[in-house]
Amino acid sequence: MIGDIDKNGIITAADASKLLIFYADISVSERTLDKDTLYVYDINRSGRIEAVDASLILSYYAAISGTDVITFEEFLKQRGIEP
């Protein structure tokens, strides 16, 4: 599932943290990404993994921590991102 970095079925701030750690790791290595990893981690569909992907996860987590009841896919669509 897109954004569920730790694969526990829910999207939380922990996913954003894990994404940032992964981003830091791939930034200093020559690691290539398979399409499944890119699908889950590339939240804004830019074709690469970057800090803004973690920011989108955190924004979503903040929204659902309040009063919003929305899926991550709906959240992304509202921001013009097709999941």
Any chance you could write out the topology, listing elements then pairs?
Layout: H1 13-27, H2 35-41, H3 51-65, H4 72-78
Helix pairs in contact: 1-3
Using brief descriptors, characterize the structure shown.
single chain, 83 residues, mainly alpha, globular
- CA gyration radius, whole angstroms: 12 Å
Number of strands: 0
Helix proportion: 40-55%
Question: What is the string of helix and strand elements?
Answer: HHHH
Low-confidence stretches: none
Structural class: mainly alpha
Shape: globular
- Beta percentage is under 5%
Concise description?
The chain is mainly α and 83 residues long. The protein has four helices and no strands.
Describe the overall structure.
By secondary structure, the chain is mainly α. Helices cover 53% and strands 0% of the residues. Helix 1 runs antiparallel to helix 3.
